[in-house]
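Thread: quick sanity check before group meeting

JM: Hey all, I'm pulling together slides for Thursday and realized we never actually wrote out the predicted structure for the chain we discussed last week. Dropping the sequence here so it's in one place. If anyone has concerns about the input, flag it before I start.
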Amino acid sequence: MSTTSTEPALELTPFDAADYLKDEADITAYINLALEDGDPALLLAVLGDAARARGMTQVAEQSGLTREALYKALRPTSRPQFSTVARVMRALGIRLVAQAEQTG
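JM (edit): ok, ran it. Output follows.
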């Protein structure tokens, strides 16, 4: 038995987290979730989302990187130096803070 639908196909738009990062609080919470996960590739992807939300040109200028170097550093497959990640985070207005892990 064959069924055909006369309903039009549903069109989906690609999800982009950068569209939902409206302010520093959103960006900070998003980056903290990635840090808690512990996956370096996820952290780079999240930093890329945050940089796009803020504006890649602005983040590149504030971090002292070219736009091309910023895109390259934030690819999930890249392995940027810690100093590069720290510069990007500083440009985003985010700082890393050490916190004791809760046990028990």
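AS: nice. The mean pLDDT is 91. The first helix runs from residue 24 to 37.
JM: adding both to the slides.
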